[in-house]
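cron nightly-structures :: item 1 of 1
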Amino acid sequence: MRIVRIAVIVVGTLIALAVVAVIALLLFVDPNRYRGDIEKAAREHSSRVLTIRGKLELKVFPWVALGVHDIELSNRAGFGSQPFLTVQNASIGVKLLPLLSKKLEVSRVKLEGANINLVSRGEQNNWQDLSESQETEKPASEPAGPPPALSIEGVDVSKTSVVYTDEIKKSTMQVGNLELHTGRLESGPARTALEKVELQGTYLAQPSATDAAAATKSAGGTRAASTEGASKEPVKPLAFSLTTSAIALDNTAHTLAPVKIQIKVGDVALNVSLAGEKMTTARVLTGTVAVPSTSARKLLQSLGIAPPITRDPKVLSTFGLETNFSLTQKQLQLTALQLTLDDTKVQGTAGVEDLDTSALRFNLNVNGINIDRYRAPEVVEKPAAAKHPASPPPAAPPTPLPLETLRKLDVNGTLRVASATFANLVFTDVVMPLVAKDGHVRLGPTQAHLYGGSYNGDVVLDARPVQAQLSLNEHLKGTDIGALVKAAVDSGRLSGRADADVAVTGVGNTDDAIKRSLNGKIDLIVKQGAVVGVDVVYELQRVNALLKRQVPAARTGSGPPRTNFNTLQMHGGLDKGVLRVDDLQMATDFLKVNGKGTLDTSTEAINYQLVAAVNKLPVGNAPAGGGLDALGAVEVPLTITGTMSSPTVRPDIEALAKGKLGQEVKQKASDLVKKKLGDKLQDLFKH
């Protein structure tokens, strides 16, 4: 009993002494007396001026805690007079007894009403000196052994804002109404854990005038009008939030327990689940990412990107994403990828094989996409006033190729599309490989079905030389050429089933330069078709009537001029944008036409010189090919001029007359020779 009594006395005495010490600390120690010392130390260590305008408060129960009010840290010299940091209230507390066993237990860290002003000026900024001073003040030697155990009851940051100004780009970003609340943080040799994180605030970006003008110019006049109207309305801050479940890191097994993260930016949500292993070496993170179905336009706005003006205003209305991921220090892999954009669904795998070089790899399947819906609206030219006719608008400036970007590309993948529409052309069952490395880009060999036939193509763009080089190797087989031409250029001038081979090259660093330099070979054969706008039979019937000294009859039929054929073959080449036809042949049931000519692809101007000959007269001189009896042994020259949309066919009467006269002279000479020779033979046999 004596021992217990002594122990009680000792404990009671210690408690009494502690109470007396606390009372003495509160009565006789005023932290405000050290205000000047604190401000002086800050100035010596950071070359900044720390001003404490409010009262310093010291509390001892249940923590030894210090609270400060209304403090200000000056800006770095040369970055203006605006303070770098202002804080309305801040407090932190520490338990004393755990320090004796190398345990640091901190109360909730509170920061209220903080305003941080960050300024960047190229390679210089107004926080650089703070980090430099911290680096130079590291102790020469650090104590060996594991760091002391640490626990923090939590962190509360409220009513805080951060403003970032880039003086070079003259742009500003602001995070306002920032609220951060965390649960208990514990860190020790075996385990580090954080109960939860809740973050929310608003984000507002003010791009520079140059960036805004560039965005407007790239979008065209329609965007300019919309931007001008929108600029009158104040830009609203974008709300964001982040919440996590408990985060636990096993320092022994080097694993991260499963964590769920929910991010919301505006109306767009992002859900992430992840777990980790080898956290001190390879840092392998695996999990899932999901973006619930949302508006793609809102998503772009959430990322600070102005949505494009599209031909179809209904596109970019739906976006969704689900994928598994694996992230290491070197790679990012996406598997079981499912992406939805409007009516388009994408599935497959994708990833960055090397994060340092952005080496992209993919293998994707697409159900269908109409690219034309996402293209910029077609420019509608306003008619010029009758009294003041305006000069034609200048041609659009050439578009430069992004050579530097192409030279940095490292892409290897295959895209499969069930149905794709581009420039009104509908491709089905598309298989399109893409390989790009160090400026050499190859799209192909691509395979697809096109209007009842097949397409095979290989496109190579070599951006390594000073002048980029383009190579096209395209093949069509059994394609409905009428449907193709109608879709491509809205023309019904040609019909039939076509086989085509195109092999051309071009050189230049703009789209216009490459187009003007295109050279190569083009071969085309069309079977069982027709040329609309040209009636070769009628033109020959007119010639037939003239040879018989008759008045040509008017063309019958209600439809447009038309020439049906069994085969149409063309062999030629492309020379600086001009299609040169060296050998053109067309065969019908009773005609053969051959010749040559040119087609300017930019102006559609045509100039063909053809020769038509009657192969055989129609049975019974049928109306479809009737009226050709005088042309049985005559070749009729034809000239086709004008444009593809409005061709003109004219028989070359002068050449025809010369040819007809020459044939008659030859015939008479032949008859005379035969007659003379016959007379001589008769005289010979008489002797």
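cron nightly-structures :: done
Confidence is low (pLDDT under 50) at residues 1-28, 133-137, 218-232, 384-392.
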